[in-house]
Design a protein that fits this description.
The chain is α/β, with parallel strands linked by helices. The protein is built from nine helices and eight strands. Strands 1-2-3-4-5-6-7-8 form an eight-stranded parallel sheet. The structure holds nickel (II) ion. The site of nickel (II) ion has 5 residues, from loops.
Length: 254
């Protein structure tokens, strides 16, 4: 069985068939999913979905692309949501310098640090989104040495991967690992022990080969597992088992 550690079932792409898609996951080999929030409404939706599907867990937080209107007072709402049943992390939080229309970098950094401080206070792990912001993301997490987390859809170098592992962090990889131009991600995955790796889909985005370009869902996490097993030179079943155990340990899921 597989653990998809990052999927957005509150996204509108699932409006036509959300219930059916989620209900069908166990028979497609998926036994656990974490659904991170991107702002307050989507975090609420993640918590609500987690309440209805036994294998689904939630994370709550402000995504860097969705934090334009953030004010520190809103942290209270995230804090209250973080205490709901089946909320296992603060996320997804981080920095995204890729899109020019994103909120200003200083604002993103403030929102990121406020949420790292909240995770520290609540003793919860964090799910970090870092796109084209490697140095600043690393610097921010270094400022919170008690906070542990995962860099999701990891896109940094092998050197950065080793550095994060040294700091006690995890990395997770999406379908990007299966893309023809994924040399960097493949190198990073190869550079760190499998005990520090998790797999994810980032559904509805990032569908792996051979489904690249279509709407993604957790059933396709097996392609990520297949590719990671190949990179690590281990059997598929062993890769599935280890990444499942890693995710359960990291998110404290019994
Ligand atoms: Ni995401």
């Amino acid at each position: 069985m597989l653990f998809d550690t990052h999927a957005h079932y509150d996204a509108q792409q699932f409006d036509p068939d959300r219930e059916a898609t989620l209900a069908g996951l166990p028979e497609r080999g998926v036994s656990l999913v974490v659904n991170p929030g991107c702002d307050i409404p989507s975090s609420e939706a993640a918590v609500e979905l987690a309440g209805r599907f036994p294998f689904l867990y939630a994370a709550v937080g402000f995504h860097p692309e969705n934090c334009a209107d953030y004010e520190p007072a809103q942290l209270e709402a995230i804090q209250a949501l973080a205490k709901k049943p089946k909320v296992v992390a603060i996320g997804e939080i981080g920095l995204d310098y890729y899109w020019e229309e994103n909120p200003p970098r200083e604002h993103q950094q403030r929102v990121f640090r406020d949420q790292l401080a909240l995770a520290d206070e609540l003793d919860l792990p964090v799910i970090v989104h870092d796109r084209d912001a490697h140095a600043d993301s690393l610097e921010a997490v270094r400022q919170f040495p008690r906070v542990r987390g995962v860099f999701h859809c990891f896109s940094g170098s092998a050197e950065m991967a080793r550095e994060l592992v040294k700091l006690g962090w995890m990395l997770s990889f999406t379908g990007v690992l299966t893309y023809r131009n994924a040399r960097r991600a493949v190198e990073a995955a190869g550079a760190v022990p499998i005990e520090r790796l998790m797999i994810e889909t980032d559904s509805p985005y990032m569908a792996p080969v051979p489904h690249r370009g279509v709407r993604n869902d957790s059933g396709y996490v097996r392609y990520v597992c297949e590719k990671l097993a190949e990179i690590k030179g281990i059997p598929y079943d062993e890769c599935a088992r280890i990444t499942l155990e890693n995710g359960k340990r990291f998110f404290c899921i019994a």
